[in-house]
């Protein structure tokens, strides 16, 4: 089987999981399931980013040991995996894992040996929320636009720097030769414009006396690695770099690199900084970077941990169920642009398209089948629509979902138009033919649903195999 490697970004554990990460995790999982269905062997990676100033300060504010703090919050992220119906074989990496730490240190030494790390004194404006230095063009009223409630800090010290400025031409060449490297293409244009404006070397260490919570610089114990330098290495440490060469080659070289899901505020780090770091280490760049938009709340304001206006995905699952959340994240929200979320919008989508949509359709068809068809129904294999498969290939899960619901609507309309429940009373043979075709159509829809709503798909297929009604109506509220 051909290997395929996909990863989410690693969320900070400075707060509990929120709906934005749940969306990223679910969308990556849909791709994982679709690839497996197509015959690929898949490595799926997620985890938690556990170093940096924000996390250290959060633990201090709570007056607990930093490791104890990250252990507790990381477990909450890990608990999301079964709750969101994520593939159980997903790899969960923590940047405090021993192997990741040694891998990050090996990566540092490799990049330094290749001549891309040096030391200098500097002074910058630094946003703790982003864990990034900021230029004047990125600020409004001397505040970061992503974290307007957080005051910028002035950092003045001697740090190690990465020679980012040397990678303008290699990055522009990467984008030119790979027009689908960043999706959507508008984000590729954005990162290309950023690189074209010129790149500045960036700091990749902090003094351990000021910020002790990080991976130690391997050849200078007075410094710890800047959190972004450490965290990004997880994409290769997760697959055994540098010591497990066979495993690394399988998932990185043979697969063509990793497909990275990230939010649009991660674009610079994922599509430029990390790619330059890979080149500096003598490794090939990633395969693709897929960029989500933000989930917005009232008034179109971005939901974020720093603004304190997030929705807890656990609450949604507890009230509506796993597949309802998966449905909303993949069909009701744009795959690439900002999308609004309100409890009312979620409830409306649930009632209209799940309870009264696929749930009601399944009950109607299986009631007719279990009542009038005594023999097991032979399901004929049928290829998925080309447009459905093509949409998944370009990570447009909303379009693929729309195609599924188009066929759900068509099946429902056929029942309304042909009225098999009436025909069968007058013409048993003709009525049975229509019902069998409806069951076969429902089975086909269930197969297309499998990457998106795996539990629902399995329940529908089980009802068809047993030729019986669902034990309880699908999407019955708890």
Explained architecture:
- The chain has 478 residues and is an alpha/beta fold.
- It folds into 2 domains: 3-292, HUPs (Rossmann fold, 3-Layer(aba) Sandwich); 342-466, Isoleucyl-tRNA Synthetase, Domain 1 (Orthogonal Bundle).
- The protein is built from 18 helices and 16 strands.
- The protein has helices at 19-37, 53-62, 66-83, 98-113, 168-177, 185-196, 227-232, 234-237, 245-254, 267-280, 313-320, 322-332, 343-372, 386-393, 397-418, 420-426, 428-449, 454-466, and strands spanning 3-7, 41-48, 91-94, 117-127, 132-134, 139-140, 143-144, 153-162, 182-183, 202-203, 205-207, 223-225, 258-263, 288-292, 295-296, 339-340.
- Strands 3-2-1-13-14-9 form a 6-stranded parallel β-sheet, sandwiched between helices.
- Helix 5 (168-177) packs antiparallel against helix 6 (185-196) and helix 12 (322-332) packs across helix 15 (397-418).
- The longest helix has 30 residues, at 343-372.
- The chain is elongated.
- The model has no long low-confidence stretch (mean pLDDT 94).
């Amino acid at each position: 089987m051909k290997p395929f490697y996909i990863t989410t970004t690693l969320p900070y554990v400075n707060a509990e999981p929120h709906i934005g990460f749940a969306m990223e995790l679910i969308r990556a999982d849909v791709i994982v399931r679709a690839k497996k269905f197509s015959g690929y062997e898949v490595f799926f990676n997620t985890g938690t980013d556990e170093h940096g100033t924000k996390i250290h300060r959060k633990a201090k504010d709570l007056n607990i040991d930093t490791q104890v703090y990250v252990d507790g919050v990381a477990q909450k992220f890990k608990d999301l995996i079964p709750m969101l119906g994520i593939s159980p074989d997903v790899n969960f990496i923590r940047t405090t894992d021993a192997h990741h730490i040694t891998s990050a240190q090996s990566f540092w030494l490799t990049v330094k040996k290749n001549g891309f790390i040096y030391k200098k004194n500097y002074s910058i404006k630094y946003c703790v929320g982003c864990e990034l230095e900021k230029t004047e063009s990125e600020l409004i009223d001397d505040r970061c636009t992503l974290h307007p409630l957080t005051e910028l800090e002035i950092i003045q010290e001697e740090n190690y720097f990465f020679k980012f400025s040397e990678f303008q031409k290699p990055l522009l060449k990467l984008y030119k030769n790979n027009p689908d490297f960043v999706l959507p293409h508008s984000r590729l244009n954005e990162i290309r414009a950023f690189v074209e404006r010129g790149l500045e070397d960036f700091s990749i260490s902090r003094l351990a006396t000021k910020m002790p919570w990080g991976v130690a610089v391997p050849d200078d114990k007075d410094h710890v690695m800047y959190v972004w330098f450490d965290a990004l290495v997880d994409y290769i440490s997760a697959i055994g770099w540098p010591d497990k060469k066979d495993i690394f080659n399988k998932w990185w070289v043979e697969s063509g690199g990793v497909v990275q899901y990230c939010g649009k505020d991660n674009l610079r780090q994922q599509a430029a900084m990390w790619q330059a770091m890979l080149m500096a280490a003598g490794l090939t760049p990633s395969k693709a970077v897929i960029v989500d938009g933000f989930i917005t709340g009232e008034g179109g304001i971005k939901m974020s941990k720093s603004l304190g206006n997030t929705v807890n995905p656990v609450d949604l699952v507890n009230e509506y169920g796993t597949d309802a959340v998966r449905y909303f994240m993949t069909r009701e929200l744009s795959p690439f642009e900002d999308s609004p979320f309100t409890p009312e919008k979620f409830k409306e989508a649930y009632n209209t398209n799940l309870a009264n949509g696929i749930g009601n359709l399944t009950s109607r068809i299986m009631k007719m089948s279990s009542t009038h068809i005594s023999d097991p129904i032979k399901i004929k294999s049928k290829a998925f629509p080309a447009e459905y498969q093509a949409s998944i290939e370009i990570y447009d899960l909303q379009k693929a979902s729309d195609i599924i619901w188009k066929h759900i609507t068509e099946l429902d309309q056929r029942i309304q138009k042909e009225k098999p429940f009436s025909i069968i009373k007058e013409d048993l043979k003709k009525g049975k033919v229509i019902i069998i075709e409806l069951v076969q159509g429902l089975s086909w829809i269930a197969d297309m649903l499998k990457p998106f709503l795996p539990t629902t798909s399995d329940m529908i297929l089980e009802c068809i195999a047993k030729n019986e009604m669902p034990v309880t109506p699908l999407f019955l509220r708890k």
